[in-house]
Amino acid sequence: MIANVDQMPAALAPYVVTLSPYDLGSNSIGVHRGLPSSTITITIPEQDQLEISWVGRPGSPQRLRAGVAGLHLDAAALRQEGCGRGVWLTLRPLGISTLFGVPASTLAGDVADLADVVPTMADLPDRLAACRSWPQRRAVVERVLLESLARHGERANRDGLRATLAVLSATTRVQEAAQLLGFSRRHLSSTVRAALGVTPKEYQRLIRFEATRGRLVAAARTEQLSLAAVAASSGFADQAHFTREWRDMAGCTPTDWMRAEGLVR
């Protein structure tokens, strides 16, 4: 179940992509593969803690009461013991700075506890745990976001960066985006890196990967799945290139991911 942005307060619609409940599987250890995307992800378990590790990275898993993941180009493994339910919130990169006063660049490639990123929201997990239904939880989150927007939203004009990201999203080459914006490639790179913590090319990779994931899901649901067709429509030279890119960013093949998600057998 995903809350439609149209159902949210109008003030939040430019910044919030999804607000939904999730269920990784009750009375067991639910595991979810967090794929790269162009959004900031906030995961708030109903109970217990999250255990988060990065696929292919050395190091011990982090245990968090609520996790905030910045833009990342590799996959994360999220585990939640016991009650596998919670609230899942995704924000556009401008959303984290506008709503919380925190630049997306400070979170890039990493995950942190919500209480450390936004101290005023340290009690949000407990407030959500006390709710008895999803509508109550959604109302609490929306109210918190509106209150935070009132504190941070009017500090800066975000239109310039919003336009820059829109052009990057609509093009496949950084030089083409720079020309359309009237920027030098160097200026574009420094602007995007300072705001997001990734390069313009990395941002375009995230956009393409996200679009490809959507095409895979749509094709699987219509039972007309063709990896070659998805690769071609996503701008890859061939299926082999597509599979290499997916393996690099997701840590598995497209087929393995769809099988794990129950999209194919």
From TrEMBL:
Keyword DNA-binding found: yes
Domain HTH araC/xylS-type: 173-260
SUPFAM superfamilies in UniProt: Homeodomain-like
SMART domains from the UniProt entry: HTH_ARAC
GO MF terms held by the record: DNA-binding transcription factor activity; sequence-specific DNA binding
Keywords: DNA-binding, Transcription, Transcription regulation
Protein name: AraC family transcriptional regulator
